[in-house]
Design brief:
The complex is a heterodimer.
Chain A lengths: L16 E6 L3 E7 L2 E3 L2 E4 L5 E5 L2 E7 L1 H13 L7 H8 L5 H14 L7 E8 L5 E6 L5 E4 L1 E5 L2 H12 L18 H18 L6 E8 L2 E8 L4
Helix pairs in contact in A: 4-5
Chain B lengths: L19 H12 L3 E5 L3 E7 L13 E5 L2 E7 L1 H22 L5 H14 L11 E9 L2 E7 L5 E4 L1 E4 L3 H11 L8 H16 L9 E7 L2 E5 L2 H14 L11 H4 L15 H7 L5
Antiparallel strand pairs in B: 1-2, 1-8, 2-9, 3-4, 4-5, 5-6, 6-7, 9-10
The chains are: A alpha+beta, B alpha+beta.
Chain lengths: 229, 280
């Protein structure tokens, strides 16, 4: 009797793309707002971006139910102590981006054998106010980079970012600065361009672009229309 | 009051129907440094006296943020208070995780009270030695509760606990009728004056007291030292006009409202110490 395959999957892919770019004193995180399943669109106005702390924002693509659960877990700091709010209570300050990065990694690995189908980019400012971007796989492997993209459009977006930003590898010695030399306005423009291009060829990316910019003044949100087809 | 033969176990009743261990726990609250709370329709102010053991040490933390809409001031065994505020924080976090809305403070105090009650009915436990003034907002407005080690809780318009709290209570009794419509500034000023009453002549400085506020549109936060000192300076200039009132009639001043019809009368001596704490 040949092995039976499951005809039900606990996962689904809701598509979409996320991008994060960091600079000397800012960080830009962007994601499209289209949520799809199969070849259908569920909604054109769904935010994939979640604010985790004062200067730390996460964008996730993949299975949005898992993304939502992950966001709740991080933001709500559920059963296991040392999650975000408990951290804030005990340490009396907001969690820094690098601390959050480790927390997210641990949270993802906790479900190593039934993973969150969530492909994340974490962006924000570190303790010194420098922009930082962390990129993850579904089970928590992460690294600090100058820029990253995840999701259905990442195969189209990443090579373009590599071409424009050419961030040095974090494995190089001596350790080189990962942040991009671009100014904040240029980085935002780059992100808009990148999504406009991705929307042309990736059917799961489009509708609207949500951009979040974190800098010393705080967090600012922008929107831009993308192709709706 | 001390040295009874029925006071070894918390699970031993006295022939007069009292649980002495519980009453002793309430004594511990009275020994702690003062904490006061007062509320208007939209805001609650918590204040406490923060004296360090010596010049070398730091102050003990007596006011804790539990959630954006709830804070607590403690008097008594501060270690017990810390543990209970951690419990409260967890409860708030779990509730808002499940229901995506803030835990109503009325529910939290019941959970706290039930937790305290357990310790009065287990032979291997001891009652918590800390009194909690819980300040919180819910849909019906601003609330101030007092949780006893006995497991009782009461809602108050204004209250004070800890050592020399009677002086503060007297002050609050005289003024509480005006609190409901007080402005933010007036409420904080009244809190500082009440704290001053407990200091018995010592100068009120922002370095020995802590004040926290929570209100509609204002998440719970502890006021920084400068703001507090400014407010102290402002009313010191006006001058203190209050004479010392000689009335220990605590019952007149407090608006006690036990929510679930807790049989407050049944516990005799121990409840009296909660509703109308008078020095015995």
């Amino acid at each position: 009797m040949p092995k039976q395959q499951a005809n039900w999957s606990p996962y689904d892919n809701n598509g979409g793309s996320c991008v994060a770019v960091s600079g000397a004193d800012y960080c830009v995180i962007a994601a499209d707002t289209r949520m799809s399943t199969g070849y259908n669109i569920l909604t054109r106005d769904y935010s994939k971006i979640c604010k985790l702390a004062d200067k730390c924002v996460m964008a996730s693509s993949g299975f949005q139910a898992d993304v939502k659960a992950l966001q709740k877990h991080l933001a709500a700091r559920h059963l296991v102590p040392l999650k975000i709010q408990i951290y804030q209570h005990q340490h009396n300050k907001q969690m820094s981006c690098p601390a959050m990065a480790q927390l997210l990694s641990n949270t993802l690995y906790y479900k190593r054998f039934f993973p969150y189908y969530s492909f994340n980019v974490l962006g924000g400012l570190d303790n010194e106010g420098k922009g930082c971007v962390f990129t993850y796989d579904a089970v928590g492997s992460y690294e600090k980079v100058g820029y990253s993209s995840q999701g259905s459009g990442s195969t189209l977006i990443m090579p373009f970012l590599d071409n424009q930003l050419k961030s040095p590898s974090p494995l190089l010695l001596p350790v080189q600065d990962a942040v991009t030399p671009l100014a904040e306005a240029e980085a935002v423009d780059l992100v808009k361009t990148v999504f406009a291009s991705a929307s042309e060829r990736d059917i799961y990316t489009g509708d609207k672009l949500e951009i979040v910019v974190i800098n010393a003044d705080g967090i600012r949100r922008e929107h831009m229309d993308l192709r709706k087809d | 009051m001390f040295r009874n033969q029925y006071d070894t176990d918390v699970t031993t009743w006295s022939p007069a129907g009292r649980l002495f261990q519980v009453e002793y726990a309430m004594e511990a609250v009275k020994q702690g440094s003062a904490a006061i709370g007062l509320r208007s329709k939209t805001h609650i102010v918590l204040g406490c006296v923060n004296k360090a053991n010596s010049e070398l040490s730091s102050h003990q933390k007596k006011i804790f943020k539990v959630d954006d809409h709830i804070g607590v001031a403690i008097a008594g065994l501060t270690a017990d208070g810390r543990v209970l505020s951690r419990y409260m924080r967890n409860e708030c976090i779990n509730y808002s995780f499940t229901y995506e809305s803030p835990l109503p403070v009325g529910r939290l105090v019941v959970q706290l009270a039930d937790k305290a009650q357990v310790c009065t009915q287990r032979s291997w436990k001891r009652p918590y030695g800390v009194g909690l003034l819980v300040a919180g907002l819910d849909e019906s407005g601003a609330h101030l509760y007092y949780n006893c080690p006995s497991g009782n809780y009461f809602e108050y318009q204004a209250f004070a606990i800890g050592s020399r709290s009677q002086a503060a209570k007297t002050y609050l009794e005289r003024r509480f009728e005006n609190f409901a419509d007080s402005s933010w500034d007036d409420l904080v000023k009244d809190a500082l004056m009440a704290i001053r009453e407990t200091l018995q002549g010592e100068t009120l400085k922002s370095s020995i007291c802590t004040v926290a506020v929570v209100g509609v549109g204002e998440p719970f936060h502890i006021l920084d030292q400068e703001t507090v000192q400014q407010m102290i300076d402002a009313f010191e200039v006006v001058g203190e006009q209050e004479g010392s009132a000689a009335e220990p009639d605590a019952a007149a001043g407090q608006e006690a409202a036990a929510e679930q019809g807790a049989a407050a009368a049944d516990q005799g001596g121990s409840t009296d110490e909660c509703v109308a704490p008078m020095d015995i």
